[in-house]
Amino acid sequence: MTDNVTSDCIIETVALTKRYGDKLALDHLDLRIPRGRIHAIVGANGAGKSTLFRILLGFLPPTSGQARILGRDSQQLRPDDRGRIGFVNEEHTLPGWMTVSAVIAMQRDQYPRWNQQAFDEVIGHYQVLPRQKISQLSRGERAGLNLALVLAQGPELLVLDEPTLGLDVVAKRAFLESLLYSNAAEDCTVIYCSHQMEEIERVADNLIILERGQLKNMSAPEDFCARVTHWIADVPFKGPEPSTIPGLLQLQRIDGLHHYLVLDQDEDFAQFLRASGARSMQSMPVSLDRAVNGFLTKNHAAPARA
Ligand SMILES: Nc1ncnc2c1ncn2[C@@H]1O[C@H](COP(=O)(O)OP(=O)(O)OP(=O)(O)O)[C@@H](O)[C@H]1O
């Protein structure tokens, strides 16, 4: 990858690898995220999501491979590049001793593309008073203020690392509304990392699944959902040996019926069940939460490679 490549990707990694001592956090990751829309990154704990963000934002060097963000090597970001990127994580760190109005004034001075209308639009969802100190705000209010500040910078790219962690339902909803508004109104690309599937289902256009530092899925959330099916079958005795069940993600026995969660299986799976002695069967679609969690749980239980 050379510097003069003009890519339509806002983020591009090639064989990106990060080792912490013996631990492999990113494993030759090839990732291309196009400009625009909302992209969700999901993965089990330790899948490498935060490591990816740290490398992309230039806070951490890769062990090998490359990462480009806004067309530039992430290790060579300039201050003006950083001004085009907004970053929000779950800590919502703002100086606790400052008042809300002082923080706003400080940010307004710092960012030439400051967009007061975008700020007002987002902060309007929260009961934040200008004279309040940051330390007096609730967690949800701090999250809202943080998002409003970042969106008012007019970023081309917004990176959110678990931004709604610990927020209640109302605060979460307000946060997501703000996000959808800004994505639509400001044409800003959003990269959003979360464990909350119902949020992802609501806001994401693209679902990226990382597993042990490798890319496992990149598609519309509904397309991933369509790959996973829940079969319920009345099979005599113990049913087929689990290792012989094609695409098996999860197996449960409830009230004498066998429940199979399977990946990438078509009507041939019914044939397999019939051949296994099933007396009756039915298939049904699953929610995104079920599909992703079934997918992640399957491999999560297996021993990790170094
Ligand atoms: N500074 C570090 N030193 C050693 N190992 C680390 C360090 N930071 C992360 N790791 C390891 O690298 C792997 C990836 O961690 P990372 O924080 O990127 O995962 P994550 O997907 O963000 O997880 P979570 O969902 O739990 O936040 C984990 O196994 C973690 O233990």
Automatic annotation (TrEMBL):
Residues 11-237 form the ABC transporter domain. Gene3D superfamilies: P-loop containing nucleotide triphosphate hydrolases. Coiled coil: none annotated. Keywords: ATP-binding, Nucleotide-binding. One of its GO terms (molecular function) is ATP binding. The keyword RNA-binding does not apply. The keyword Transit peptide does not apply. It comes from the Bacteria. This is ATP-binding cassette domain-containing protein. It comes from Montanilutibacter psychrotolerans.
